[in-house]
Backbone:
DNA sequence: CGAACTATTGACTGCCATCAATTAGTGTGG
DNA sequence: CCACACTAATTGATGGCAGTCAATAGTTCG
């Protein structure tokens, strides 16, 4: 009986946490590499948080006490110069992880573009789990690799592409990513403002706007409501984007 | 006797490889985290290579068969657009590691700026060692983190800084790095051409040259032979660099 | 429906790119 | 060691792309 009970308890303990069962980001998050006991350990130290559009998940300079896994919505990473100029570093979606690079203080800000859901984990227990779980370490290294690759693509865009090429590259990049997450191909969403896009592309709002208008006149894209964009002629965009 | 012998052999096997004993980059390379047996295993699968200035260590698109540890000299990482425009992604020095991000093919080119010495390791055995050595995994993750951080700083420079700010940031960045490697503070070397610098900063040779001349006229820097530069007024550079 | 914000469009400016010519530096062979 | 050739760097003149300033149009949401 004792034996039965303890067996039952063990199986209970090694089961998938209820919270995670329902999580639609689970198969594309860092969690996917964790066996159930480790997943439970992670789930036990984390908590689900929700942010409204415009809310900060992280302010540059804050003590880096947490890491985040995005389970829904879109956030923007950015950095500020002392005079207020802003560089947007990227837009993250469901399944992306935040907190790889932090030292004692966050070196970037993170802002919710839409309503955002995350799993938030205190850094210390996360770090402890990380040190004891090589699979997680490997997963994070793979993600760091990917981020580095995409940062290099972004660098090339900022350093060497024209305004038009930047806008086309950006649209294609977002479309590809949404498609990979299961969205309709050639349909994408721009929940961010033209200013946010401009700060991502190293341009101004006006220049982004003019480029979009040009693409609209070409009938390469169609602007729908609420920032949705339909790509009508992908080939057109590709040839205007000078993609590597 | 047998016993003595095997003890001797074991101690021989766990000693530091002769090659590594003399290596001046050892304490600042990934090697520093490896205990002697693992270091020996790494040394056994690697080989020392030397490259002349202008030689390619890696061409973009090549099968990514090797990873590299720089033990001397300076290399340049870069990416090309199909029409020949080039973005320089960074300059690496002694102690830096190349090959973190590679998929099946290298996604960047690597060119020697000076005479360069590296330890070159075939990817597969390196990967095997990596999977069995969490300490190495951790070291690579830390380095990936650092690279990501520096890529983000670079992104901000390219997206939001003026020509003058870019040049000053670049000089300060190189000076800091040389100082950290034990060089004289406020003395730095530019073994790369103005074109290389321009491609790093998202500018043209002429603009880089004009900016340098301006700094010379300000007596903020002094140009010496063979691309050496002395920083005369660091504070001047800092205030012109709009550093974060 | 209307207020408030965001995007677009237009006119003009300026920074950096481009084109061109000169100067300086580097390496080589007589 | 010096003269020569070649490449790289600098400087100057001009142009163009994207930025700035300003006004209008369009969205979105209470």
Residues:
């Amino acid at each position: 009986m004792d034996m039965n009970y303890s067996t039952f308890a063990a199986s209970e303990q090694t089961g998938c946490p209820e919270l995670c069962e329902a999580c639609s980001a689970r198969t594309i998050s860092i969690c996917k590499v964790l066996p159930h006991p480790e997943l439970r350990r992670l789930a036990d130290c984390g908590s689900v948080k929700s942010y409204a559009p415009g809310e900060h998940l992280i302010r540059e300079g804050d003590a880096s006490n947490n890491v985040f896994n995005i389970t829904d919505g879109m956030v923007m990473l950015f950095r500020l110069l002392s005079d207020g100029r802003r560089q947007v570093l990227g837009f993250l979606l469901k399944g992306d992880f935040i907190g790889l690079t932090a030292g004692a203080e966050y070196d970037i800000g993170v802002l919710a573009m839409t309503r955002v859901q995350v799993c938030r984990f205190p850094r210390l227990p996360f770090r402890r789990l990380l040190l004891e779980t090589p699979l997680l370490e490997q997963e994070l290294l793979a993600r760091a690799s990917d981020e580095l690759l995409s940062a290099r693509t972004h660098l090339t865009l900022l350093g060497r592409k024209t305004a038009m090429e930047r806008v086309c590259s950006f649209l294609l990049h977002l479309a590809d990513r949404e498609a990979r997450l299961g969205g309709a191909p050639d349909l994408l969403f721009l929940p961010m403002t033209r200013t946010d896009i401009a700060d991502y592309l190293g341009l101004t709002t006006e220049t982004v706007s003019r480029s979009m208008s040009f693409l609209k006149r070409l009938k390469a894209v169609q602007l729908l409501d609420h920032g949705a964009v339909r790509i009508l002629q992908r080939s057109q965009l590709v040839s205007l984007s000078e993609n590597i």
Remarks:
- The interface with chain B takes residues 79-83, 85-87, 89, 100-101, 107-108, 131, 134, 137-138, 140-141, 144-149, 151-156, 158-161, 199-202, 242, 244 of chain A (CB under 8 Å).
- Residues 162-163, 203-204, 206-207, 210, 225-226 of chain A lie near DNA strand D (CB under 10 Å from a C1').
- Chain A has two domains: 2-145, 161-243.
